[in-house]
Write a structure and sequence with these properties.
The chain is built from twelve helices and 19 strands. With about 475 residues, it is an alpha/beta fold. The protein has three domains: about 80 residues, no CATH class; about 180 residues, Rossmann fold (3-Layer(aba) Sandwich); about 160 residues, OB fold (Dihydrolipoamide Acetyltransferase, E2P) (Beta Barrel). Strand 7 and strand 8 form a beta hairpin. The two termini are about 25 Å apart. It is an enzyme of class 2 (transferase). One of its GO terms (molecular function) is rRNA (uridine-C5-)-methyltransferase activity.
Length: about 475
């Protein structure tokens, strides 16, 4: 485990450098500013040149930790909507304290989960190499501001103001996130022009109050490895005539935009359930499919309809950690459930005898098969369908009757149907459970414990620095 005590903030010396170190965090020089002198003005700072704005106090925020201790901390990066947005409540807390808080949060959840987990070890939260600019996937709501008189700026003679951001229920409005510090520069660049493009091409924006308009939200994904970008317009109806000029303009301005899609979704309907994801209606407007990313030593290509991890560097570390925990000798059978586009399966394959991956999404399974071919992996088979049904079918066909290691990365609802029962029938020696949905995790782990599998430790990974979210890896072994 790395020494997290070396990652933090200081304000004791006179240096004012603010460049990130090689770990994606900030060096000791980052927040060292002499309180007797004004900090140097960064070239990216667009604030008015006023003495009160240059005062060191404007870079400091008073934070009260969960233990009741108050401390003064420096902003990691200027975020104008930090409080209003609410998505990153700990963005300007020292990274050392962020990790401590997430570890403490998991320990508290384990304690509340009951006596079944009272003796289970909770490890320290694993840091993210990128603390800013790590986010490579984001879905943003599109909103058009209203004038003081309640009239839309869309009317002739009035200027339109387009916001891209997150809907905050307490404010009943969409908070424009501007140039978000946790997102990659590529995403921020495309978003910056998209606000203008929507206005220039006169694309109507859906308003829940009037239930009219075309564009509801925008899904952007980019690769850290290649900087390729896929963009999806989520709309209320198919209108290529309106969207195609905007899409072509974006593709011409940003050469790294790989493809632009249109997806029709009924207003008020979300795409959170697995069933809805399988029936996504995607239409290619400009460019081509597939976004190339790299995890570890393997290349992966994702289609627009497949799930793609938010934090690529940390995802690589999680895959490597899972491979380490499996302790494969080349003779084992590994089963990867909810396998997605094959990231864990392909990472484990070189050290295993065979790997079987199962996922309910036809898009993800198609990507997984392609990724295996790209990386010349031949001892992996992928199957599409509901996990419990596929497991039962493979067992009936005597294709899979025993497994040495089972890996799970389930969606929000956790293990479906008789999944845990079928896993138990495989009699694995080791189960590795990965999830960012903590409550669901404990529900499934209690069922595994009843089936004779004992959780040995929890290991949290900071997949989203600045936010309250993290992923948890649980290692279980047969009693």
């Amino acid at each position: 485990m790395k020494d997290f005590s070396k990652v933090g903030f200081s304000s004791r010396s006179s240096s004012s450098s603010s460049r990130p170190d090689k770990r994606g965090g900030f060096s000791d020089k980052t927040y060292r500013r002499d309180r007797d002198q004004y900090p140097e003005r960064d070239s990216r700072d667009v604030r008015p040149n006023r003495e009160k704005d240059r005062s060191p106090e404007n870079f400091v925020r008073l934070i009260t930790t969960k233990s009741g201790v108050s401390e003064r901390v420096m902003h990691e990066d200027q975020c104008r909507v930090l409080e209003k947005c609410g998505s990153c409540p700990s963005l300007d807390i020292s990274y050392k304290n962020q990790l401590i808080q997430k570890t403490a949060d998991l320990k508290l959840r384990v304690q509340k989960a009951g006596s079944d987990f009272s003796s289970v070890l909770v490890k320290d939260c694993v840091e993210s190499e990128d603390r800013l600019g790590y986010r490579h996937t984001v879905k943003l709501v599109v909103s058009e501001r209203l004038s003081l008189g309640g009239r839309s700026f869309q009317k002739e003679g009035n200027k339109r103001w387009i916001d891209l951001g997150f809907y905050r229920q307490s404010l009943n409005e969409v908070v424009d996130i501007g140039r978000c510090p946790i997102q990659s520069n590529t995403l921020n660049d495309v978003m910056g022009w998209l606000r203008t493009g929507i206005r220039l091409h006169n694309v109507s924006v859906y308003t829940p109050r009037n239930k009219t308009g075309l564009l509801q939200s925008v899904l952007l994904r980019t690769s850290r490895h290649t900087r390729q970008t896929l963009l999806t317009f989520i709309v209320t109806k198919a209108d290529l005539a309106t969207l195609r000029p905007l899409a072509r303009d974006i593709a011409e301005k940003y050469m790294n935009v790989q493809g632009i899609y249109m997806q029709v979704v009924a207003p008020g309907r979300t795409l959170n359930s697995d069933e809805e994801k399988q029936n996504e209606n995607l239409t290619l407007i400009v460019g081509q499919d597939l976004l190339e990313e790299k995890y570890g030593n393997f290349i992966f290509k994702f289609s627009a309809a497949s799930y793609m991890p938010v934090n690529p560097l940390l995802t690589s570390r999680i895959y490597a950690r899972i491979e380490e925990l499996m302790e494969l000798s080349g003779k084992e059978t590994v089963v990867d459930l909810f396998a997605g586009s094959g990231g864990i399966s392909i990472t484990a394959a070189p050290s295993a005898r065979e790997v079987i991956g199962i996922d309910c999404s036809p898009h993800s399974v198609k990507d997984a098969i392609r990724n295996a071919k790209i990386n010349e992996i031949k001892n992996v088979d992928f199957y599409e369908g509901k996990v419990d049904e596929v497991l039962a079918k493979l067992n009936a066909e005597k294709r899979l009757q025993k497994a040495d290691v089972v890996i799970l990365n389930p969606p929000r609802l956790g293990c479906e149907g008789k999944t845990i029962e079928h896993i138990t029938e495989l009699a694995p020696k080791t189960i590795i459970y990965l999830s960012s949905f903590i409550d669901t995790t404990f529900k499934d782990l209690k069922n595994f414990k009843k089936a004779g599998f004992e959780p040995e430790f929890f290991e949290p990974f900071d997949s989203s620095p600045g936010t309250l979210n993290y992923e948890v890896l649980c290692y279980l072994s047969k009693k």
